[in-house]
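Sync notes, pocket subgroup
Present: LS, DG
LS reminded everyone that the earlier model was apo-only. Rerun requested with 3-phosphoglyceric acid included. Inputs:
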Amino acid sequence: MNKKSVRDIDLKGKVVFCRVDFNVPMKDGEITDETRINAALPTIKYLTEQGAKVLLASHLGRPKGQVVDELRLDPVAQRLSDLLGKEVIKTDEAYGPEVEKAVANLEEGGIVLLENVRFYPGEEKNDPELAEKFAALADVYVNDAFGAAHRAHASTEGIAKHLPAVSGLLMEKELEVLGKALSNPDRPFTAIIGGAKVKDKIDVIDNLLDKVDNLIIGGGLGYTFIKALGYDVGKSLLEEDKVETAKAFMQKAKEKGVNFLIAEDVLVADDFSNDANTKVVGIDSIPSDWEGLDIGTKTIEKYVKVIKESKLVIWNGPMGVFEIDAFANGTRAVANALAESPDTYSVIGGGDSAAAVEKFGLADKMSHISTGGGASLEFMEGKELPGVVALNDK
Ligand SMILES: Nc1ncnc2c1ncn2[C@@H]1O[C@H](COP(=O)(O)OP(=O)(O)OP(=O)(O)O)[C@@H](O)[C@H]1O
Ligand SMILES: O=C(O)[C@H](O)COP(=O)(O)O
C-alpha cells in the first residue's frame, strides 16, 4: 500500500483521533456480533502501547443527524473495555467542552470513545466545519474504519485534510488482502456472487468478468440470469429491468473465456417458511406459483467442484435464504467447500456471507473475512475509496 500507516509515524504523547467502524448489529441494547470491535483491537492496542492518547470515533446505524438514544455507543464502550481489560471513557458528545476536558485529562495509553458521529448532520455531509472541530481535538488522524472507507464523511475524509493522516492496521490489512486478490490473483480465480441485491452487484459482476476464471452466480440475483436464459422464474426474486444486462454479461463472459456458472436446478418452495413444501426442479421447470429460495443439488455439486479446484475465491452474498434452515443447504455447501480446501485462499465480503459462515461455525476456516460490506464491494469494483485516498502517501 502506498499510504502511510500508524507504523510510519511517531505517536508518543500524541492525541490520536482514530476513526473505527463500530457499526455493530444490536438487539435490545445488546451487541449481537462483535466482529468489528475485535477487528479494531490490534490498532487500538498498538496506539496505546506507543504511548498515544486515543480518541476513538465511530458511527452506529443511520440516525440521520439526530440524537437517537438506542444508537448511543455506550454498550460498545463497555464491551471494548471488557475486551481490552482497561478503562474506556465514553463521552456523550463527539466534540465540545466535555470532550476537550476528557482529552485534557487523558494519560498516555488512555482511551476515550466519542459519541456516535452520525448524531451530527455535518458528518454525512462532510461539513468542513465539523471536520475542523474533530481535527482540533487531536494531533494525528488514523483511519481504521475500512467498512466506512467508501463514505466521504467528516470523520472519514474531511478531517484528513487538517492533520497528518495515516491508516490503521485493519485498514492496511484489508487493502493488502483485497488488493492482492484483485491485482495478482492466484489461479484459478473464482468469484461467487449471491444475495438479493442485483442492482448493487451489477457493477461488481461486470468488473469481475475482466479478472476471474470462474464466476459463480447464486442466491436471489440468480433468477434474473435464469430469466435471461429464457426460462420462467415463477414467484422468485426478479429484476426485470436487469434481464438485458444479465444477457450482456453472459455474452461478455463467453468472449472473455470466463466460465460463467448459473444454477441448473433450484430448490423451490410454496411458502417463505421452514414448513413450506419444497422440491428441487430444473431451471426450465420452475412452477409459476412457487419461489426459488436455494440452489439445487446438481448445482451444489457443480459449484463445490469448481470451488475446490480454485486457488483463490472471493465470496459475496449467500446462495439462498440461509437464515431459514430449509433454504440453507447451498450456502452451507459453499462454506464447507471453502473450509475443506486448505489450498484455496478464501475472502469473504458482505455482512450476510460473513454471518452465514459464522452461523455454520466455519469462520475460523476462512482465510480472510472482510469487515467491509459496501466498502469491499466498491473496492472490488475498482472504485477508489475516499477514506483511503485522503490519507498521506508514503
Ligand atoms: N433466492 C433468494 N430469494 C430471496 N432472497 C434471497 C435468496 N437468496 C438469498 N437471499 C437473501 O439475500 C440476502 C443477502 O443479500 P445481500 O445482497 O444483502 O448480501 P450481502 O452482500 O452478503 O450482504 P450485505 O448487504 O451486508 O453486504 C439474505 O438475507 C438472503 O436471505
Ligand atoms: O455497515 C457498513 O457497511 C458500514 O459500517 C457503513 O455503514 P453505512 O452503509 O450506513 O454507511
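DG: The chain has a mean pLDDT of 95.
LS: Residues 195-197, 219-220, 237, 292-293, 316-318, 320-321, 323, 350-353, 373 surround adenosine-5'-triphosphate (ligand 1) (CB under 6 Å).
Action: DG to write up.
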